[in-house]
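Q: Got a minute? One more chain.
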Amino acid sequence: MSSVKVTYGDLKINIREINNHWWVDFYHNKQRVRRTTNLKSNDKNLKHIKDVIIPEIVTALTSGSIVESSKKKLTLDEFSNKYFVIYKDSVRTHVYTKNYRHFNNHIKPYFGEYLLNDITPLELEQWQQKQLKLYKPNTVTKYRSILFSIFDKALQNDLIRFNPLTRVKSPITIKRKIKTLTIKEDDNVEPFTIKEMKEILGNAKGNLYYVIFLMFHTGIRPGELIALTWKDIDFEKKRILIEKTIVNGKVGDVKTQASVRYIDILPQLEVKLKELYLETGNYNNLFISHVKKPFYSHDILNLRFKELLEKINIKERTLYNLRHTFASHMISNIQNGIDILWVSNMLGHKNSSITLKVYAKYIKDEDEIRIKKINKIGMIMDMI
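A: Always. Here it is, folded:
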């Protein structure tokens, strides 16, 4: 254990290394004061203690009051440990695990040893540029949002004067371009055509067939799908209760409060569900793996789905795109009486504006219908 002595007039302060952290140890008014600075024992933090913390202690003692000088001297890593303890109880387990991993891999190596107040917007911008050379803007934005939340929590606790990331433009803003009529759509939302769906269903086998059919006719998320039990199926009221999901073998809450919902059983889906019941009705879950247990995750189904697409020569996409396919197909038929609110409820969106934000591009008017609309609006304008 190392120790450094610092003298200020009659005040002698020992800076001690205990459990890899610096502590200050001194006597005042015949009483011993020994407190941690919460700073890891390295030369950079030792200099900060000598130059900043100890002068603050001396000033506080001179004015007749002892302050906990370490209160606002946490490193990002130390504060983040406190942050993630709280964060863990506020999100689903897999979300916590993913974001904690992102922090350890992409943030902590750069700023972990920095004091919260020492991280500047310029350093954050340099970090962001390095990330953009390795990852897509959307990915870097995810890393940035974790760091932003940590800074925001520090700001709420008066540990920093401002959130430095508010002074750094986000990657999405930097990379945003003006849309043109030929702009490429987001690769993440790439629904299958009806022709492709017919070919996919025509070649799917076993429980994968029912997985694909159910997703295509409901827009349910894969994790919600494998969590379904036969108790969730109400054939009499023709609806399915969605209130749980499975991630890495654990049954947990759905994505958001709005995701707790009933989804309607369409006539053709009812037929397939009754077929499936003949196969798995003796089990709790609708979908059972080859070892006669609920699926640990939807990853194996996603792999089988990609293998099927490769086999029938259809561009590879994830199982999740079946949800997009349901949504886009429904949205594109609004002219045929499909209700946007119904689509939004089926998807578990908080409101229809979220649905439209993602899928509005699939609302298509035939030229004849569009021209009639234009003429009708023109007539209304003439009346003004």
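A: DSSP finds 16 helices and nine strands in the chain.
Q: Perfect, thanks.
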